[in-house]
Write a structure and sequence with these properties.
Order of helices and strands: HEHHHEEHH
Oligomer: single chain
Distance between the termini: 92 Å
Strand content: 5-15%
Largest sheet: 3 strands, antiparallel
Number of strands: 3
Shape: globular
Length: about 180
C-alpha cells in the first residue's frame, strides 16, 4: 500500500525528479530567481527551504548535508557565504512564488520563484509603506487642529448680524454658441 506517500511526482521517475530538483535548487541559489511551471515551483519550495534552514548553521556537517542535495560546490559556497547571513533572522518562508500567466505552447501555468530577501523592488515598496504608515490615534490628532479653525469660523458667522439672512448665490449664465445653418 502507498499510504502517506502523496506528493507530486511531476511525471518523472525518482532519480530524474531528484536530479531536476537539485539542478533547479542550484539555479535558484545562484541566480536568486528562476521562471518555471507552478507544480515544479511548489515542489522546489518544499525541496529548497529545509536546505536554507540548514545553511543558517555553518558547520561541516550542515555543509555536507546541503552538498548531498545540491551536488554543486559553487552553490554551497554561495549559499553559506551570501544567502545565509541575509536569512539568519528570518524564521522561515525564504521563497516566494509569483504567478505570471500561462505558457503559449501547452497552456501550462507559469510562475517565478525567488528568494524573498533578494527582490529589491518589493523591499523598496515595503520600506516606503512602513515610512508612510501612521497609527489611527495619530490620524485623529492630526485632524483635530484642522477642525478647530472651522468651528471658530462657524461661531464667528453665527455672531454676525448677516448670518441670519439667507446667503445669495449668483448663477452664471453660460451661452451656448449658435450653430450656423448652411
Amino acid at each position: 500500500m502507498r499510504h502517506n506517500k502523496k506528493f507530486n511526482h511531476l511525471g518523472r521517475k525518482s532519480a530524474h525528479r531528484k536530479a531536476m530538483l537539485s539542478n533547479m535548487a542550484t539555479s535558484l541559489i545562484m541566480h536568486k530567481r528562476i521562471a518555471t511551471t507552478l507544480p515544479k515551483a511548489k515542489a522546489l519550495k518544499v525541496y529548497v527551504e529545509p536546505l536554507l534552514t540548514k545553511s543558517k548553521e555553518d558547520t561541516t556537517n550542515s555543509r555536507r548535508v546541503v552538498f548531498s542535495y545540491l551536488q554543486s560546490k559553487e552553490a554551497v559556497t554561495e549559499l553559506f557565504r551570501e544567502i545565509s547571513p541575509k536569512i539568519a533572522d528570518r524564521p522561515g518562508g525564504y521563497t516566494r512564488i509569483l504567478r505570471t500567466g500561462f505558457r503559449l505552447g501547452d497552456n501550462a501555468e507559469m510562475c517565478i520563484i525567488e528568494l524573498v530577501d533578494y527582490n529589491e523592488n518589493m523591499l523598496k515598496e515595503k520600506a516606503a509603506k512602513k515610512a508612510s504608515r501612521t497609527r489611527r490615534s495619530g490620524k485623529k490628532a492630526a485632524e483635530a487642529p484642522a477642525a478647530a479653525p472651522k468651528t471658530a469660523q462657524a461661531e464667528a458667522l453665527k455672531e454676525s448680524p448677516v448670518a441670519d439672512e439667507a446667503p445669495v448665490v449668483e448663477e452664471q449664465k453660460t451661452e451656448a454658441p449658435e450653430e450656423k445653418a448652411e
